[in-house]
Design brief:
Helix content: 25-40%
Largest sheet: 7 strands, mixed
Length: about 500
């Protein structure tokens, strides 16, 4: 069911003028007096305005969060899980509204916007089960009548700095796990999609209020300088940052300098190997969606296709035909395949990347261009393009957050894997093959060097049951499923002596 934007904003408590920070039910207009507007890339219109938080506002939020942590960490984990379960139910009730806002403010298709909210629901379900499974190990002591075990304790305030391309899901991956682990959260959303964050805060704040929880468990703060304050603040033992590799380097260095922890989800330069043994029709779907889904603005978007020389021309022809059938336009129209880029600056970077590719020798078999006209009045729409390249081209080694797909030919699987790994990034990878030996080699220690490696599915998208993240310049962080929860807790080893003597470890004698 599609809703009009006015109805969506009303149901999500988005006003014309929105506050700059919140500690839960407390919403405050910033003392800075500065404001920004949120524009929709769909039509270029202003959706709403909001204030930017000041340093005083930031300090108030952190102080409130610290006080809340002293209480929240004492709440039994299953009870914390029950509150996250209620958040999941609240998201179910608002899924259509929030998914529509994601689509309208970010520009991804309505189906993808709804899918992003479904990921939030799924991670809440995962976290509920996790709240009863924060297990530690019991170890045998080398000393008689001693018991050793480990347990996990919450860290404190978890800082979440998210990007525009997944304006709600990435927050939920972190917040759901952090909350059941006993932490409180401070969220700095992207200034390009702040209204989605405000909507999420309203939803969770209502749940916390109904459960008579104090202010400060879930906090949001809007501001251009907030990220720097968070990364340099010793009161935040963990920073989860999603964004560019360039900014990730700064965040990593700042957090490490104070011996804090960071979870970094940075750039991707993802490839699909198309084997001569692949199901080409299935491969086509994975390649095209991976390249043009979310207008190429996923960290898991497919950037490179490494195609076996025996089927290269055949598959290239399929790609060109498929690109000719793409429908570009308003993402709220579910008949369209490709929506806009996030803003005009993204369009500029897309155009520059195409020109740089031409200078370096790229041959464009589907030309890319910025689109204009009544249907593209925001100036944020582009034509997805395809180029034949060498993997060592400088532009191919970089991540361009736009729908540019590079084609590379290979002759042996060893060569394909070498090409796949020969980029600075290491997030997601895939091989399309019906050959068992190829699949197993790709997944072996001699295969893909990425944090995610798939067989017969594309690079784009992931399920919350598995830990999400990559290697090399992707940052090495892990979010979401598996045992990623351990990143939000501190491990403590405990030894209990229930004997009437005090034997020392390693057999040391110390008689008095």
């Amino acid at each position: 069911m599609q809703h009009n934007i006015e109805e969506v904003l009303s149901n999500l408590n988005i006003k014309d003028q929105n506050p700059g920070y919140s500690t839960g039910t407390e919403w405050q207009t910033s003392s800075s007096g500065k404001r920004i507007d949120s524009f929709s890339p769909v039509n270029g219109k202003v959706i709403a305005s909001l204030s930017l938080a000041s340093s005083d506002d930031y300090n108030h939020v952190i102080d409130t969060a610290q006080t809340a942590f002293t209480y929240w960490k004492t709440v039994p984990a299953p009870k914390r899980g029950d509150i996250v379960r209620e958040l999941g139910n609240a998201l179910r009730a608002t899924k259509n509204y929030l998914g529509t806002l994601v689509s309208y403010e970010m520009g991804k298709s309505l189906q993808e916007g709804l899918g992003e909210v479904q990921e939030m629901i799924d991670i809440c379900d995962f976290a509920v089960g996790l709240s009863r499974q924060l297990y530690g190990l019991t170890m045998h002591s080398e000393r008689p009548n001693h018991r050793m075990y480990e347990q996990w304790h919450p860290l404190g305030i978890v800082g979440i700095i998210s990007a525009f391309n997944f304006p709600v899901a990435v927050w939920s991956w972190n917040a759901a796990l952090a909350l059941v682990c006993g932490n409180v959260c401070v969220w700095k959303p992207s200034s390009k999609t702040p209204l989605c964050a405000i909507a999420c805060q309203h939803i969770l704040a209502k749940v916390l209020k109904e459960n008579k929880m104090p202010e400060g468990i879930s906090n949001i703060i809007i501001g251009n300088q907030v990220g720097d304050m968070m990364t340099n603040d010793r009161k935040l033992p963990l920073i989860s940052f999603t964004g560019s590799t360039k900014v990730g380097r700064i965040v990593s260095a700042a957090v490490a300098s104070r011996f804090g922890r960071s979870i970094l989800e940075l750039g991707g330069n993802n490839a699909i190997i198309i084997s001569k043994y692949a199901d080409l029709d299935m491969s086509l779907i994975g390649a095209v969606f991976g390249a043009v889904g979310t207008a190429g603005q996923r960290c898991t978007s497919t950037r490179r296709l490494i195609i076996h020389e025996d089927i290269y021309e055949q598959f290239k022809a399929k790609l060109v035909k498929a690109y000719g059938q793409l429908r570009i336009g308003n993402p709220l129209d579910q008949h369209n395949h490709v929506g806009p880029l996030i803003d005009k600056e993204a369009v500029k970077l897309y155009s520059e990347a195409i020109q740089n590719g031409k200078v370096q020798g790229a041959k464009y078999i589907v030309e890319g261009l910025a689109l204009s006209g009544d249907h593209y009045s925001s100036g944020c729409y582009v034509q997805p393009c395809i180029a034949e390249v060498d993997n060592n081209f400088k532009i191919v080694q970089e991540e361009t957050f736009a729908p540019i797909l590079y084609l590379i030919k290979y002759s042996s699987l060893d060569e394909a894997i070498r090409i796949q790994n020969d980029v600075p990034q290491g997030l997601s990878s895939a091989i399309m093959t019906l050959n068992l030996r190829e699949a197993e080699q790709f997944l072996s220690a001699s295969g893909s060097d990425c944090g995610i490696a798939n067989v017969n599915i594309g690079t784009s998208g992931a399920e919350i049951g598995g830990a999400f993240g990559g290697e090399k310049e992707t940052g090495g962080g892990r979010e979401s499923g598996s045992d990623a929860w351990k990143g939000y807790m501190r491990r403590q080893t405990n030894t209990i002596n229930y004997s009437n003597t005090l034997p020392l470890a390693q057999g040391i004698k110390f008689d008095l």
